[in-house]
């Protein structure tokens, strides 16, 4: 799907799908009173793409921008959007730390070497923003701790902190009455480790929280499709199966895969094997 296409997901929600090099989904909630953006994008160019699409649709300029988590690809676009940032306290703290960074190739490589930055992030920042690279980090103006409701007229967006392995500040946005859930990268692995991983300790409670929303559409940060409720339930089942299997069989991947055959009656497919590997990599962090 081309990354310039703004799709309408529901009555009040629009979606700019993820694009290259590593641009995440951006969401737009259009109320009778105000427009709210969900995540700020990977760069000013990414944010401008969204703002131009809004203008072309006749959608009023954003009143606020709410962030799912602190990762660069979700926040660097903020300087191009002239609206206050809303963020969880942990996200705000991380962004305050990033404001002191340099973003040259040399500085990025130094942070990769020290383990502070991932190779994947550094490579994608270089592709998204060419040298000489100026990054203006915008500080959130509205900071919350657990959850926050934003009333936009005829639609409300509830932002709720959920955490997870990917980033402990991860939040999801529940748009009511549309039954849309914007979840950023919260189901993803922790990438700040030699081998990316998932843990039962963090993922299982997060799945329980997500499944309480009973929505129709789920928008993920880097998924090129909008997930249905049935697809989320199925993914949660797979994650539970893989996690339980690793709990039972430990770091023995073959035994965990065979254990799944006993549990489900069928062989583990490639996606399940990948999940098993993630949980094995996360055993040390359980
Ligand atoms: Zn992320």
List the defining traits of the structure above:
binds zinc ion, 9 helices, Metallo-beta-lactamase, Chain A, alpha/beta, seven-stranded mixed beta sheet, six-stranded mixed beta sheet
What does this protein structure show overall?
The protein is α/β, with parallel strands linked by helices and 286 residues long. The chain has a domain of 153 residues: Ribonuclease Z/Hydroxyacylglutathione hydrolase-like (Metallo-beta-lactamase, Chain A), CATH 3.60.15. 36% of the residues lie in helices and 19% in strands. The chain is built from nine helices and 13 strands. Strands 1-2-3-4-5-6-7 form a seven-stranded mixed sheet. A six-stranded mixed sheet has the order 8-9-10-11-12-13. Strand 12 and strand 13 form a beta hairpin. Helix 6 runs antiparallel to helix 7, helix 7 crosses helix 8 and helix 7 crosses helix 9. The chain is globular and about 55 Å long. The mean pLDDT is 95. The site of zinc ion has 5 residues, from loops.
